Amino acid sequence: MLFKRISFFLLCILTSSISFAVLYVPTTADAAAQNVNLDYLNQGRLLYTKTCSSCHTIHLPSEYTKMQWALTMNKMQKRAKITDEQKEMIFRYLITKAK
């Protein structure tokens, strides 16, 4: 039983590491398109990976439309215990490369 738990834990860590590695890194052009500075989008990326991957595998921004991301962010904000400002940072990061 202990072996199964350790294996599951290691699988979760590996999965979240792989997901983080394939997430796009925002560019200055992305920041200009969102009318924010590059640091803002990078903070959104970091918040997204740290907050969301603590409970489940994260999704690529391109998997959903802006509207789908908006609905998801509204639904998950309370569960993730993030502020409105943090939610906005994550949302801006996600919609930069949304469908």
Description of the structure:
The protein has 99 residues and is an all-alpha fold. Helices cover 72% and strands 0% of the residues. It has one domain. α2 crosses α3 and α4 runs antiparallel to α5. The radius of gyration is 15 Å and the shape is globular.
Quick one: how many beta strands?
A: 0
- Share in helix: over 70%
Rounded to the nearest angstrom, the distance between the terminal CA atoms is 42 Å
Please describe the biggest sheet, giving its number of strands, its sense, and whether it closes into a barrel: none
Q: Strand share of the residues?
A: under 5%
Overall shape: globular
Q: Helical segment tally?
A: 5
